[in-house]
Amino acid sequence: MSVTTVVMIGCGGFGRYHLGNILKMRDSTKVVAIVEPSKEMIERTSEVFKKFDIPLPPVYARLDEFLKSGPKTETAFIITPHNMHFPQTKACLEAGIDVLLEKPMVMNEKEALDLIDARNKTDRLLVVAFPGSLSSAIHKAKELIAENAIGQVVQVAALIYQDWKESQKGKWRQVPQISGGGFLFDSGSHMINTVVDILNDDIDIVFAIQDKKDTPVDICSIITAKTTRGILINLTGAGFSIGCDSEIFIVGTKGIIRTGAWGERLEMRREGEKNLSPVKFGKSKGVWEQFLKVRSGELENPCPPEVGLRFARLMDMINASADNEKVVIKK
After folding, report:
1. Burial class of residue 105, CB neighbours in 10 A (0-12, 13-18, 19+)
2. How much is the pTM?
3. Domain 4-129: top CATH class
4. Phi, psi for residue 33 in degrees, rounded to 5
5. In contact, 22 and 48? CB cutoff 8 Å
6. Which of 7, 107, 202, 230 has its CA 20 to 30 A from that of 70?
7. Which residues on adjacent β-strands are paired with residue 160?
8. Which 3 state secondary structure label does DSSP give 159?
9. What percent of the chain has pLDDT over 90?
10. Residues 38-66: pLDDT tens digits?
11. Which fold has domain 136-283+305-329?
12. In Å, what is the CA distance from 184 to each residue of 10, 180, 190, 224?
């Protein structure tokens, strides 16, 4: 089996989480470099490598330094603050590097369009790391809907909740110039993307109410929407709660599918059945394993940059509705 080389760009908490999964896959992946400006994060990253008895690879404070003098790499995994996603991804693509990019892809529609243009010009691979879109559970849910297992889909009810307000207080995720938004743009993006992915339909009408809870960004959100095919959607983002979890119910005329924003579960209840029952789906080692499958041609890219553009445009509608306290209709 060939081994894919990767540079890890960003080694904060989520970066180290993904790194731990990647280091378990040493038969298929080799981390050749780290790009991280924080000495504290580098020290914590070193501990992750020690756990797997692997030497810490070369570390670079800046991406441009790595691209100029670092070891050659086939791929990059970018897990940095949101405002850095666009310039770092564009630089990697233009350097001939395939990219797995942490969600949300970019800060706005313009950056999304420019990144699609860069992907097209360089002919490199770009996958957005939405775990839902990359999960076997969501792929299976889409198959069931296509097979008419629950009849015509008529409504969706989704909730994501987390102790986000307190856990992110004083951190970059609550600085809009860096984060691009609040709870809905961050953790809530998983819920929004998974719902839209499952339905495979455009959202035409949005009405949103948001509450910042005395912070600079949205914390609590309620969104009511309608798709082109007439499916009604209710999305709740509760960032002033406990833990971190989600629920998504796809309601059909002949059944119901229950899943989660990350594709962490899949259940179904058909007409005539009394309870939801588990649906079998393939297990995954995470987004990196799925990225490798896309790169090898084993799996069609389920999360190209067009997914990031779709999310950016939908967030523009949600924000416009919340800011102006009115229904927004897609032009």
Report:
1. buried
2. 0.96
3. alpha beta
4. -165, 160
5. no
6. 107
7. 237, 246
8. strand
9. 98
10. 999 999 999 999 999 999 999 999 999 99
11. Dihydrodipicolinate Reductase; domain 2 (3.30.360)
12. 22, 10, 9, 14
